[in-house]
UniProtKB/TrEMBL annotation:
<dbReference type="InterPro" id="IPR014729">
    <property type="entry name" value="Rossmann-like_a/b/a_fold"/>
</dbReference>
<dbReference type="InterPro" id="IPR038727">
    <property type="entry name" value="NadR/Ttd14_AAA_dom"/>
</dbReference>
<feature type="domain" description="NadR/Ttd14 AAA">
    <location>
        <begin position="156"/>
        <end position="310"/>
    </location>
</feature>
<dbReference type="Pfam" id="PF01467">
    <property type="entry name" value="CTP_transf_like"/>
</dbReference>
<dbReference type="GO" id="GO:0003824">
    <property type="term" value="F:catalytic activity"/>
</dbReference>
<protein>
    <submittedName>
        <fullName>Putative transcriptional regulator, NadR family</fullName>
    </submittedName>
</protein>
<feature type="domain" description="Cytidyltransferase-like">
    <location>
        <begin position="6"/>
        <end position="136"/>
    </location>
</feature>
<dbReference type="Pfam" id="PF13521">
    <property type="entry name" value="AAA_28"/>
</dbReference>
<dbReference type="InterPro" id="IPR027417">
    <property type="entry name" value="P-loop_NTPase"/>
</dbReference>
<dbReference type="InterPro" id="IPR052735">
    <property type="entry name" value="NAD_biosynth-regulator"/>
</dbReference>
<dbReference type="InterPro" id="IPR004821">
    <property type="entry name" value="Cyt_trans-like"/>
</dbReference>
Length: 347
């Protein structure tokens, strides 16, 4: 029985890693994949381990999480190779016959382990990507991120502000321009389907429905997701109409983090419809939304002017966000839990 070995950070796992593992498995009976992590890394090791288990559900591929705080380069320690040999031997349960890599260190590692080295796509011609590229510019290299883990790398942009400031119009235009998804205001669709007037009891299902929409839309978004309002808006309106708060809603409204917010000013005409009734309170509601943004510690970008000016300003700003690195907050356990709703979103 031929036993193969692959080791790496998988920081994050990408399609190059999956190609390496797929090709290696063709050449051995059993493959051990050592997923190595350090405490200082921005994507937690436990999350990467969970991803690897999800991406590689093959009983003949064993994923092992290595937590040893080992040196990363030979120049960091005089016993570099012996340290890694000890780590590898302590995390594998049988003799290694072949080590597979896409790295230049493969020959040296195989020599230390006393086994064969088979390089796979060493020049990265088949899958031209690296973990560093994805961490630094995830949207530019989005196609190389495996589909199940893409939502963690989606840049979520909230459009916020008081009623009748053009959030829906702008969200649609931005999603069209950047060829991705946007989430409509869940409350509007929910209330339009109701046969009775809005009640305080509507706010929790509205909040949960909106969050569920965000979670689902992120799965198919192409690097960016635009939200027409969010739970902070729901919280503001609950306070305005009923002077109440709901702990579940408050925790998420103040705790959920986004890559940025576009705050739309009130310098366009207010338009009445059957779900708008605060036209006389525009200035006061604008102030309340600004207070809520500060309370939630949200950074935001002002969007002002007529509709064409707003669109231009927003596109220019989102283009800057597109070029940014991955958001470390997105990988925290706290954010994952805050976006977990449960099997019944209305419960």
């Amino acid at each position: 029985m031929i036993h193969g070995l692959i080791l790496g950070k998988f920081y994050p796992p990408h399609k190059g890693h999956l190609h390496l593992i797929k090709e290696a498995k063709k050449k051995c009976d059993v493959l051990t994949v050592l997923m190595c992590s350090l405490e200082k890394e921005l994507i937690p090791g436990n999350l990467r381990y969970e991803w690897m288990l999800e991406l590689l559900p093959n009983p003949n591929i064993e994923i092992v999480w290595v937590k040893d705080e080992n040196p990363q380069y030979p120049e960091e320690h005089p016993n570099f190779w012996q340290i890694w040999k000890q780590t590898i031997n302590s995390h594998t349960n049988q003799q290694i016959d072949i080590v597979f890599t896409s790295e230049l260190y493969g020959d040296q590692l195989a020599s230390v382990l006393g086994c064969q080295h088979i390089p796979i796509d060493i020049d990265r011609k088949v899958v031209p990507i690296s973990g560093t590229q994805i961490r630094e510019k995830p949207i530019q290299f989005f196609e190389w991120i495996p589909e199940p883990i893409r939502p963690y790398f989606v840049k979520r942009i909230v459009l916020t502000g008081s009623e009748s400031v053009g959030k829906t119009t702008l969200a649609k235009k931005l999603a069209d321009h950047f060829q991705t998804n946007w989430i409509p205001e869940y409350a509007r669709d929910y209330l339009e389907k109701k046969s009775t007037p809005m009640a305080e009891s509507d706010f929790l299902p509205i909040a949960k429905g909106h969050l569920l929409s965000e979670v689902e839309a992120a799965k198919s978004s192409h690097g960016i997701l635009f939200l027409d309002t969010d739970l902070l808006t729901t919280k503001v309106y609950l306070e305005r109409y009923y002077q109440r708060e709901i702990p579940w809603l408050t925790e998420r409204a103040l705790g959920l983090q986004y890559d940025t917010s576009l705050f739309l000013d009130i310098d366009i005409p207010w338009e009445k419809d059957k779900l708008r009734d605060l036209g006389e309170e525009r200035e006061g509601m604008k102030t309340r939304f600004l207070e809520a943004m500060e309370e939630a510690k949200r950074d935001f970008f002002w969007v002002k002017g007529n509709f064409m000016e707003r669109e231009r300003l927003a596109i220019d700003y989102v283009n800057q966000i597109k070029e940014g690195p991955m958001n470390p907050v997105a990988f925290t356990k706290e954010q994952t839990l805050l976006r977990t709703i449960g099997s019944d979103p209305m419960a």
